Amino acid sequence: TPQDVMYVHLYLSEISHFANINQHYRAFFGTTLPPSRSTVAIGKGVLPGGRRVLLDCLVQLGSGGYMRQNAASNKMAAAALQTTTSKLRQVLHVQSISYWAPVCVGPYSQVNTLRSAIHLLAGQIGLVPSTMKLRDTWQEQLEQCWTNSARVLDALDGSALHSLLSCLVYVGKDIEDWGRIEHICREQILGNGGVMAGVIDSTA
Fold this sequence. Notes:
InterPro entries: DPH6/MJ0570, RutC-like_sf, YjgF/YER057c/UK114. Pfam families: Ribonuc_L-PSP (PF01042). This protein is 27% helix and 18% strand. It is an alpha+beta fold. The strands form three sheets. It has a three-stranded mixed beta sheet with strand order 2-1-3, with helices on one face. Strands 4-5-6 form a three-stranded antiparallel beta sheet. Helix 4 (138-157) runs parallel beside helix 5. The model has no long low-confidence stretch (mean pLDDT 87).
């Protein structure tokens, strides 16, 4: 079911489709415990077949029921509830302005966690959490993305960027300084986005 979806990569041909797509997206996935999401506009004619929208999903069967009161009706969810060593799924949904993570700009969660071990972080843009304004330059925005990610990880369980298994970085077509991009990413991962582990409290 849509409730079992934990992560969505959403690709748009144009960012102008964003508001309209969000309406349909919200109707399909709902607003309670939604999947985490990465959204990127990649330009006209890039998606196959002239499509305007494309998405792929990561699904954990039974995880929707596990998070809700109908868990007993799903065999996988019911079995997962008997496991005391890990949780099948957990969701972090930031809905108010804070100093540590941007408000979710759309019907998605900041993080969906699989079996208390694998964190699926939503895509980040260079927003300063306390003001919800973009940093001035693309370099500062890239650094802010890493900082936001590090803060979310730390708020969850003290995780850090050096534990990343995989990460996608999208850049605008006008940015060609790949050496600078790689340098910033490497420095931010090594420095954990400037965030000291154990200092972010998601309950604040």
